[in-house]
Amino acid sequence: MNSLEVSNLKIGDDATGRALVRNSSFLVEPGSCTAIVGESGSGKSLTCRAILRLNPAGLRQSGSIALGGVDLTKLSEREMRKIRGRRLCLIVQNGMRAFDPSSVVGVHLRETLNRHFGWSRAEMTARMGKAMESVRLKDPVAVMNSFPHQLSGGMLQRIMIALALVLEPDIVVADEPTTALDTVSQYEVVEQFASLRARIGCSMIFVSHDLGVVRRLADEILVMRDGEIVESGPTRKIFSEPRHAYTRHLISAKEALNRRFNHVMGGDDVVDR
Amino acid sequence: MLTVERVEKSYRTGGLFARRRKQVLSGISFEWKAGECLGIIGESGSGKSTLGRLLLGIERPDRGSVRWEGRPADERRARRGSVSAVFQDYTSSIHPFFTVEKALMEPLTLRNKRAAIDSRRIDRLLEQVGLDSSYRNKYPHELSGGEAQRVCIARAVATEPRCILLDEAVSSLDGSVQVQVLDLLRSLKTAYDMGYIFITHDIQAAAYLCDRVMIVRDGRIEETVDVDRLRDVQSPYAKKLLDMVMA
């Protein structure tokens, strides 16, 4: 497994001259999970897409993004194509938009696997089926033959995770994967993320504004605000002794919700996992 | 007061001429008393938003009745002054060609066609939701999510209803903005002496705001419980739901 090192990443908008991400540097150790938290517009998603080189051409980008020593920003589009999916997997917020609405999800899955492996059709179905069962999708064949609109958001998200299980990437980049889900599906998807990491030993970049989810999954946290990393550190430390005022603000908002909930549930004030 | 009695609702599925119907709500009966804050909790697809539309009179139940102060909800006069609504999708909730001022004027002029509306009233409304008068001339796309939702809340309280129905009103907002909006709702509740019906999948948010929650599953009421007694829920489904909260 390889580490991912982002150094001096700057993203700016050519048209308006605004800096969207200012000089961010961080390291994702092999097998660890780094969470990026912050409010909308803080540059979390831009950072994710910069890693996969998916930002639109109108955005100016500088700095280096090294995956196992190879600078991704210097690769040709053709070489990058091989890395996307196989070594870097992206899981986006809205499952409905991640799949092609005009074909059944099996087509998407087969296309992806075809690009990276020389497997036969039967082998792809068998491997995909096994992975889907492990993320608790019953009847994988029926799921593969369904259109995205026939499946729920939580199911689509779990199909993405199943695909990542088969691809075994070095790094999974998950951009707000649970934000659009209700409590029950969110719980299930988060559990599957945890087991995905345990099973294939990948590293993970997990973007979320839900600190409850982040606390459950992340080893390291980066707090972003207005395109800047204002604080970073191990999860426990960020929660127990946040240094930056903004981090404290984010945590206190979550605590306010927790306190009331724990109070009515009659539990302790802090429930640590 | 709102009375819902034995409400049933189904939709036709599988094309225009298909006979198959999907039962969305069955046997829903409950009461909402003035000033109360009632949470309606359920997973996606449980029928909670359909129930919300029935309460607003946007749709009619197949069977049973929804009554505001004894009058059916689909009667416009019955709803006037009784209920207004705030929805999840703040980007599509305000007419894109309207300024904030115009958006806030709309319910007021509809209610009181002849009387000129005091412009200080708009300022006061904005102030109450934590915005200042500089927002009057802004368009919806210039607002952040939290600001747009505040404008929607201001518009909902403009007619001084007895009840505001909030359908996933904070679910699309960031964590910290969510708490700010919930706090705002709490303070408005006392200022205007009104109640809420808070439809959500977020149990923590419901526990923060509500006095009583109703857990809906597959179109049926699974359990209704006071928030202070949330830990004593009886049904296995409600227990499971509470276990899945990631605090």
UniProtKB/TrEMBL annotation, chain A:
SUPFAM superfamilies assigned: P-loop containing nucleoside triphosphate hydrolases
ABC transporter domain: residues covered: 4-251
GO cellular component: plasma membrane
Highest taxon listed in the record's lineage: Bacteria
Molecular function terms from GO: ATP binding; ATP hydrolysis activity
Keywords for this protein: ATP-binding, Cell inner membrane, Cell membrane, Membrane, Nucleotide-binding, Translocase, Transport
Compartment list: Cell membrane
Membrane topology reported for the UniProt record: Peripheral membrane protein
Similarity remark: Belongs to the ABC transporter superfamily.
Name of the protein in its database record: ABC transporter ATP-binding protein
TrEMBL record, chain B:
Domain ABC transporter positions: 2-243
One function term, GO molecular function aspect: ATP hydrolysis activity
UniProt keyword Ligase present: no
One biological process term in Gene Ontology: transmembrane transport
A Pfam family assignment: ABC_tran
Domain of life: Bacteria
Swiss-Prot/TrEMBL keywords: ATP-binding, Nucleotide-binding, Transport
InterPro entries: AAA+_ATPase, ABC_transp_ATP-bind, ABC_transporter-like_ATP-bd, ABC_transporter-like_CS, P-loop_NTPase
PROSITE patterns listed in its UniProt record: ABC_TRANSPORTER_1, ABC_TRANSPORTER_2
PANTHER family, alphabetized: D,D-DIPEPTIDE TRANSPORT ATP-BINDING PROTEIN DDPF-RELATED, TRANSPORT ATP-BINDING PROTEIN
Family under the similarity heading: Belongs to the ABC transporter superfamily.
Protein name: ABC transporter ATP-binding protein
